[in-house]
Design goal:
The chain has about 130 residues and is an alpha/beta fold. It is built from 4 helices and 4 strands. The protein has helices spanning about 25-35, 60-85, 100-110, 120; strands at about 10-15, 40-45, 90-95, 125-129. Strands 2-1-3-4 form a 4-stranded parallel beta sheet, with helices on both faces. α1 (about 25-35) links the parallel β1 (about 10-15) and β2.
Length: about 130
């Protein structure tokens, strides 16, 4: 018999952005799902695709850029919590493309997304430019 999709960790693909919706990752998501046998979720960063946008507009100051990054990281953590707690995913492998990889690495390195307590839930990490 085959292996059920739930027996393998899911994959969360984090899009390049900001401003580029995740739909360009559909072919990769399909390939991972069909060839590797994983459930794949596409993540739209804040302000693009199906994610809500920042009502305050764009800003170029470093402090506001840092606050925007903090919002992106907080949103990513919320999405991971939802996948694990509400959808019952036992683990989620993360793959970030372009700016999505930057958000992923910032979350890991500076905000403790990948820690001993979360390692079992978060799964593997990958970043591509």
């Amino acid at each position: 018999g085959g292996v059920s999709l739930r027996s393998r960790p899911a994959t969360l693909l984090i899009n390049d952005g900001p401003g580029l919706p995740s739909c360009y990752l559909d072919p990769l998501a399909t390939r991972i799902s069909e060839k590797v046998g994983r459930t794949v979720y596409l993540y739209d960063q804040l302000g693009c695709g199906l994610s809500p946008s920042d009502e305050e507009g764009d800003s170029s100051s470093m402090l506001e850029d840092r606050l925007q990054m903090d919002l992106c990281i907080g949103d990513l953590k919320d999405v991971l919590s939802f996948l694990c707690e509400e959808l019952g995913e036992r683990g989620v492998h993360l793959a970030g493309h372009g700016f999505g990889g930057v958000v992923l690495m910032e979350a890991v390195v500076r905000k403790g997304l990948w820690s001993k307590s979360t390692a079992d839930k978060a799964g593997d990490l990958a970043s591509a430019s």
